[in-house]
Amino acid sequence: MTILVIDGQGGKLGRSLVENIKKSFPHVEVMAVGTNSAASDAMRRAGADRVATGENPVIVACRSAQIIAGPIGIAIADALMGEISPAMASAVASSCAYRVLIPMNLCSTYVAGVSGKSATLMDDALRRIGE
Q1: Residue 109: its pLDDT value, please?
Q2: Cα 13–15–21 angle (5° rounding)?
């Protein structure tokens, strides 16, 4: 089982996902792809098994992952302050992988029902990954 974690900007959410996935499911491989080197480095330090940076690694990794996890913006072109290219968003959206997307009200996108940052969102994401 390979879980792909994608994140951008400073990689804070990606780092938290990697840490929690490795703690909860130590037997799975966590592949992390950052849209920039800061995000990649944060996920590397969190314990990801494999780490890459940039558009093409996102596209390639989406082909083989069984689960893709990250902020909801990874499936929206031009999200994360423009770090998600249309090709990246398309790769995430068209992947056969099960997607676990953390809702966030950022980058001109409002997700109804999401009132802010909460540990409940991370707990729910981990529960879904476990299923």
Answers
A1: 67
A2: 100
pTM of the prediction?
0.89
Residue 116: Cβ within 10 Å count: 7
pLDDT tens digits, one per residue of 72-81: 999 999 988 8
Question: What is the 3-state secondary structure of the chain?
Answer: CEEEEEECCCCHHHHHHHHHHHHHCCCCEEEEEECCHHHHHHHHHCCCCEEEECHHHHHHHHHHCCEEEEEHHHHCCCHHHHCCCHHHHHHHHHCCCEEEEECCCCCCCCCCCCCCCCHHHHHHHHHHHHC
Token digits for 99? 């997607």
